[in-house]
Design a protein that fits this description.
The chain is of the alpha/beta class and 320 residues long. It is built from 10 helices and 13 strands. α2 runs parallel beside α4, α4 runs parallel beside α5 and α8 packs across α10. The site of UDP-4-deoxy-4-formamido-beta-L-arabinopyranose has 19 residues, from α6 and β8.
């Protein structure tokens, strides 16, 4: 069994990773500054250390707790904001990650599972997107994730250090057993907004573009359940500890769902029509993004358990 430090473990994806690690019998400590993470997401079985990745002294102290592996999910992730305030993303995502890498090599922690993103690829040149697809990030957020992957690659060459970068496509859903109750606040992503409209916290949903070359004119994305993502982190840690090489892996379902299809599925779940308006395209949105997860299947033996978006949305509606 591994002893794992989950940095960003109070956040949306991090809390699901903590649950999956505990369920597999691993020891877990969480390091989080609670900027977007929430105390309600913490598990009593996991030690909690409140701290920031920019506080190198606190980070090093936490890292010296005899860990076998680190999962790093502490990042700013609002794509629009990253274009307006890149300096925040340079500091938090890039400098913060370098602090983690340096603390790891300083404390002799060898294995890192890193929360990367499909945003490293940019506009798809072919579909489904595999890991050999060229990297042309369209936004500064995606650029920071790509840069961190490059730093990890260098550290793996120069130091006793190995990593798995997990490139998530569109993460949605919540723990189906209801153990994670912290609803993401202020998210600009589609499903949280749909749920805000359904719950009356928001007046309407604007659909960004109805004139794409897709089956119904709206954008298609690969929506993957957060508990499936979480399970991949556990497998990645176990593989690294068994001696696997460093790697970067896509995590998606291989199945595309349009914005209109998401709305229809949400309407079925909540049992009524939602207030929807059709607006213009959002800058930088590719028409279609769908993952090939063949490599994750080969390397980790990972496959998504959830492939039906209606079922995934049901796990989200449960937390209201
Ligand atoms: C999904 C679809 C929108 C809001 C982003 C990042 C990506 C990853 C996940 C991670 C798109 C449409 C959305 C709305 C809409 N990031 N939409 N109305 O842009 O695919 O991916 O989040 O940390 O790197 O780029 O996700 O949820 O914003 O959008 O019509 O109010 O829903 O146009 O087609 P996206 P999203």
């Amino acid at each position: 069994m591994a002893k794992v430090l989950v940095i960003g473990g109070a956040g949306y994806i991090g809390s699901h990773v903590v649950k999956a690690l505990l369920k597999s019998g691993h020891g877990v400590a969480v390091y989080d500054n609670l900027s977007t993470g929430q105390k309600i997401n913490l598990f009593k079985e996991a030690e909690f250390i409140e701290g920031d990745i920019l506080d190198t002294a606190a980070l090093q102290k936490a890292m010296s707790g005899g860990f076998d592996a680190v999962v790093h999910l502490a990042a700013k992730k609002a794509v629009g904001e990253s274009m307006e305030k890149p300096e925040i993303y340079s500091t938090n995502n890039i400098c913060g990650s370098l602090n983690i890498l340096n603390a790891m090599v300083g404390c002799g922690v060898r294995n890192l599972v890193f929360s990367s993103s499909a945003a490293v690829y940019g506009m798809p040149e072919y579909l489904p997107i595999d890991e050999k697809h060229p990297f042309h990030p369209l936004n500064y957020y995606g650029f920071t994730k790509l840069e961190i992957e490059k730093y990890m690659e260098w550290y793996s060459r120069l130091k006793d250090f190995r990593y798995m970068a997990l490139r998530y496509f569109n993460a949605i859903g919540y723990d189906a057993e209801g153990d994670i109750r912290g609803r993401e606040i202020g998210s600009q992503n589609l499903l949280p907004i749909v749920m805000d409209v359904a719950a009356g916290r928001r007046e309407k949903l604007s659909v960004f573009g109805r004139d794409y070359e897709t089956r119904d004119g709206t954008c298609i994305r690969d929506y993957v359940h957060v508990s499936d993502l979480a399970r991949a982190h556990v497998l990645a840690i176990e593989k690294l500890m068994a001696g696997a090489e460093s790697d970067s892996l896509n995590l998606g379902t291989g199945k595309g769902t349009s914005v209109d299809e998401m709305i229809q599925a949400a309407e079925k779940v909540v049992g009524r029509k939602l207030n929807v308006e059709y607006a213009g395209r959002r800058a930088g949105d590719p028409a279609v993004l769908v993952a090939s997860y063949d490599k994750a299947k080969k390397v980790l033996g990972w496959e998504p358990a959830y492939t039906d978006v209606e079922e995934i949305i049901r796990t989200t509606w449960n937390i209201e």
